[in-house]
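Exercise: predict the fold of this chain.
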Amino acid sequence: MNNISVKNKEKPFQKLLRLETLLKSGQKFSIKEIAKALKIDERSVFRYLQRLEVNGISISSRIRKQRIKEYWISLQDTTVNPKLLEAIKEMDTDLTKNGLRKYHNLLTQIQNTLNDNQHKEDMVSNLVQRDFYFDSGPLAHHIGKDNFLHKTIDKILGAIQHNSVLKITYTEHSQKRKLSTFIFHPYRVFLRVGKLYLVGYKEKDNSIINLIIPRIKKIVFTNESFEETPFNLDSYFKYCFGQWVPRNSQKPEKILLELNEDWVLKLFAESNFYPKAKMKRGQNPPQVELQLYITPDFISWLVGILPAIKVLEPLSLKQQLKDHCQRALNYL
């Protein structure tokens, strides 16, 4: 009875220390084997693995047969003081006078405890990253102190690290705003045009899609892992103007624009289109050539920089701009 009582009172950082010791034993363990050894549920194992990695411990993994993933820590990895783990876990990111004092004390502990410079940098980065404020305009999602959203992002990043298959409940983009639940393989988290997205593979549709992270209402870890999938975010957004990636057979088109103002010439010269915009300064007026999908957000953007530009090719784009402007005039 006494032994059971002690186990029930075991603190989270003690479980983290036991997990670290287990993974450094020289053997490789599946999630089920770790859960059995530590006497915790399998979902908690994912959480503790993520917590170790967040705090500077590099966990190796591989997928063996039957899609079972194994985990271990190489013996040369740095051991983190359990008191330091607990302090990091309880850190308050509110930068009050007292909060700043906590940060300085904790960073001092990191300097004194760790000798591994790489791990030291990782831990410092994880501590301060949420105090970097990125404001991309009034239509961007403001995370602020939304703890639910922070926890959602933490879960997603942990799932990406461990190739975990997720069951996601998501608010669809429709007038009825219906919820749907589906199996999802997470690949990358990215910020594009002021919105935070998760891109990955949706099993039901057999396709790669973007999910707007604030619309994710629930995440459940399954007991399955997916095999490492080659994925390049730059290639994924090739020919895209904004965050819209055509799902049908739409082809990118050659777009030739005449630039009639100095400011718009500079705008395209400093742009980050992919493929890169081709500036034709030898023409009078100068021109720019793009290879892009023609999507509604691109058309709206072009309307916004009229009359500083003139569409030379394709003629279908010129007509779309005329129709867009005419519809807008009808509402004025």
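Check your answer against the key: The CA atoms of residues 238 and 274 lie 5 Å apart.
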